[in-house]
Design brief:
globular, 2 domains, seven-stranded mixed beta sheet, about 500 residues, binds NADPH dihydro-nicotinamide-adenine-dinucleotide phosphate, about 20% strand, Aldehyde Dehydrogenase, Chain A, domain 1, alpha/beta
Length: about 500
C-alpha cells in the first residue's frame, strides 16, 4: 500500500494499493482497445462527453479543495482558485476550441504541382495511448488538463500521479469514471516512477511529463530506445526584474505572492528578484516587512497564507541549499530555517541577498526561498537573467510597456510577463512550457492539442498522364530537365529583393 501523509499535521490521511508491475501489459492492452472505440466517436461528441467532468467537479468544490490541501499542505482556498477553478476553466476552454484546432481539414497550397492536378490535405489524428506522469505540487490541475486535451483529441490515457499525492490521483480517476466514456479509457497507476516509469515509457506513444529536470532527462534517455515521444515540463528559476518606474506598491505585493504561494513549490515561482539599485533598499525593506506579516500555519486553519512543504526530504534539500548559500556569502534577511513552532514540514518564508554566480542563484530551490540581486543597466540585468540553466518564465516590471516588450524579446524563457508574475499557467489559451533545462514542448491551447496528435498528410492526384519525372530517362526527359533548370533559375532571389 502507498500511504498518504498530511505534510502539515503528519497524520495518515489514506492509502491506495500499489499497481503491480506485472499488470502494466494488461493495462496497455485495455487502453489500446478503449482508444480504438473512442477514436471512432466524432470529435464534437468526444469533447462534449469529456466536458461533463465540470458537472461532477462542481458538486464537490469543497471536498476536492480540502483533499488537495490535506495532501499537499496548501490552503484549501488557494487549492480551489489555482487548481479546481483552473481545471474547470481550461476544460471549458478546450471544449470550446478543439473543433477549431483539430476538426478542420486544411488544404495545403502546392503551387507548380497543382498544374499537374495534385492536391494535399492535412488532418490531425490521435497518437494512441498517452501516458501522463504528474508532479506533487499541483496534483490536480497539471495532469487534469493534459488528460482532458489527450482525450478530446481521441487518445486513451494512462495516468501516474506522484506517490506523494495518490489520493488526488485517485480522485481524478473517480471523476473520469463518472462520465460517459469507454471502460479503461482513463486508467490510473500507482507506484514509484523508478518502478513503473520504464514500462510506461516503453509502451506509450507519448509521455506528457511534469517534474524535475533530472527525472525529465532520465525519461528522455529511456524514450530514445523506443522513440517514444516526450513532452517535458521541468524545473525553473524564474526571475522578476523591477525598474524604478514600475508601480512599486503592486510589484512588492506581487513578489511576495509570487515567491511564497504554495510554499514556493511552483515551477514558475519568482525565485530571483533583480531590483534596480535606485529602489533596492526601499523595495527590499517593504518586501521583508510584508513577508513578516504572512501567516504560516496548518493550512486548514482560517486565514493561513503559507502552509507546509511536501515532505522531510524536500525541506531538508531547501535547508541545505540555504546553508550552502550562507557559506558562499548570501545574507539572510528573514527566515532561513525550519519553522520551530510547527511539527509538520514547514520552512519559514526566506529572503536572501546574493550575487549572480552563487549556487542559490543558479540552482532551483523548490521551496519558499527568494534570492535578491541588484542591477544598474538593462544590458547587465538581461545578461544576469539569461545566465541560468533554466528558461521557464520571467517577469518585467515597468510602466514603459515598449521597454518591457523590448527586454521581453531578449529573455531566454518560454513566457515573459510584463507587470505580472507566475499566473500564466492559468491561461488555457496560451502556450505553456520552457526552454533549456526547463523542458521541451508546450502544453495548453492549440500547441497542447498538437502535442497529443500527429499530422496526417493526404496527397490526392487526378493527373491523367505519367508524371514528368518518371522513367524512361530518354531524350524527352533531357528536355524536361532543361525546363526544370529554367524554373530553378527563376527561384534565385534578385539582389534588389528583400
Ligand atoms: P519528480 O521529478 O520527483 O517527480 C515527478 C513525477 O515523475 C512523479 O510522478 C514521479 O513519481 C515520477 N518519476 C520519478 N522517477 C521517474 C522515472 N524514472 N520515470 C518515470 N517517472 C518518474 O518531480 P516532483 O514531483 O518533485 O516535482 C517538482 C519538480 O517539478 C520541480 O522541479 C518543478 O519545477 C517541476 N515542475 C515543473 C512544472 C512545469 O510546468 N514546467 C510544473 C510543476 C512542477 P514518484 O514521485 O511517485 O516516484
Amino acid at each position: 500500500m502507498i500511504k498518504s501523509i498530511n505534510p502539515a499535521t503528519l497524520e495518515l490521511i489514506g492509502e491506495v494499493e500499489e499497481t503491480p508491475i506485472e499488470k502494466i501489459n494488461e493495462i496497455f492492452e485495455n487502453s489500446k482497445k478503449a482508444q480504438k472505440i473512442w477514436a471512432k466517436v466524432p470529435l464534437k461528441q468526444r469533447a462534449r462527453r469529456i466536458a461533463e467532468v465540470n458537472k461532477i467537479i462542481s458538486n464537490q468544490f469543497n471536498e476536492i479543495s480540502l483533499l488537495i490541501s490535506e495532501e499537499v499542505g496548501k490552503p484549501p482556498s488557494e487549492a480551489f482558485v489555482n487548481e479546481v477553478y483552473s481545471v474547470m476553466d481550461s476544460t471549458f476552454h478546450y471544449y470550446s476550441t478543439v473543433q477549431e484546432f483539430l476538426g478542420k481539414t486544411k488544404e495545403i497550397p502546392l503551387k507548380f504541382y497543382e498544374s499537374l492536378k495534385k492536391k494535399s490535405i492535412l488532418l490531425r489524428k490521435p497518437l494512441g495511448v498517452v501516458c501522463v506522469i504528474g508532479p506533487y505540487n499541483y496534483p490536480f490541475t497539471i495532469p487534469f488538463q493534459q488528460i482532458v486535451q489527450s482525450l478530446m483529441a481521441g487518445n486513451s490515457v494512462i495516468f501516474k500521479p506522484s506517490s506523494e499525492t495518490v489520493l488526488v490521483g485517485k480522485k481524478i480517476q473517480e471523476i473520469f469514471d463518472q462520465i460517459d466514456i469507454p471502460k479503461n479509457l482513463v486508467q490510473t497507476v500507482f507506484g514509484s516512477g523508478s518502478k513503473l516509469g520504464n514500462p510506461l515509457i516503453d509502451n506509450a506513444q507519448k509521455i506528457l511529463f511534469t517534474g524535475s529536470t533530472a527525472t525529465g532527462k532520465r525519461i528522455m534517455q529511456r524514450a530514445a530506445r523506443t522513440l517514444t515521444e516526450v513532452n517535458l515540463e521541468l524545473g525553473g528559476k524564474s526571475a522578476m526584474i523591477v525598474f524604478p518606474d514600475a508601480d512599486l506598491d503592486r510589484a512588492v505585493k506581487a513578489a511576495r505572492w509570487g515567491v511564497f504561494t504554495n510554499s514556493g513549490q511552483v515551477c514558475s515561482s519568482v525565485k530571483r528578484l533583480y531590483l534596480h539599485s535606485s529602489i533596492y533598499d526601499n523595495f527590499l525593506n517593504n518586501l521583508v516587512e510584508l513577508t513578516r506579516k504572512l501567516k504560516q500555519d496548518i493550512p486548514t486553519k482560517p486565514n493561513v497564507d503559507v502552509g507546509a512543504m511536501i515532505n522531510e526530504e524536500q525541506l531538508g534539500f531547501v535547508d541545505e541549499m540555504v546553508k550552502k548559500g550562507i557559506e558562499e556569502g548570501a545574507k539572510v534577511l528573514i527566515g532561513g530555517k525550519r519553522n520551530p513552532n510547527l511539527k509538520g514540514y514547514f520552512y519559514e518564508p526566506t529572503i536572501l541577498t546574493a550575487t549572480n554566480n552563487m549556487k542559490v542563484v543558479q540552482e532551483e530551490i523548490f521551496g519558499p526561498v527568494l534570492v535578491v540581486l541588484k542591477f544598474d543597466e538593462e544590458k547587465e540585468v538581461i545578461e544576469m537573467v539569461n545566465n541560468n540553466q533554466y528558461g521557464l518564465t520571467s517577469s518585467i516590471w515597468t510602466n514603459n510597456i515598449s521597454l518591457g516588450k523590448k527586454i521581453a524579446e531578449q529573455l531566454d524563457t518560454g513566457s515573459v510577463m510584463i507587470n505580472e508574475v507566475v499566473y500564466t499557467f492559468a491561461l488555457p489559451s496560451t502556450p505553456w512550457g520552457g526552454i533549456k533545462n526547463s523542458g521541451i514542448g508546450r502544453s495548453h491551447g492549440k500547441l497542447g492539442f498538437y502535442e497529443v496528435t500527429r499530422p496526417l498528410h493526404i496527397n490526392i492526384d487526378q493527373y491523367d498522364e505519367p508524371d514528368l519525372w518518371w522513367f524512361p530517362y530518354d531524350k524527352n526527359f533531357d528536355e524536361i530537365v532543361k525546363n526544370f533548370k529554367t524554373i530553378a533559375s527563376s527561384l534565385v532571389l534578385k539582389d534588389s529583393e528583400e
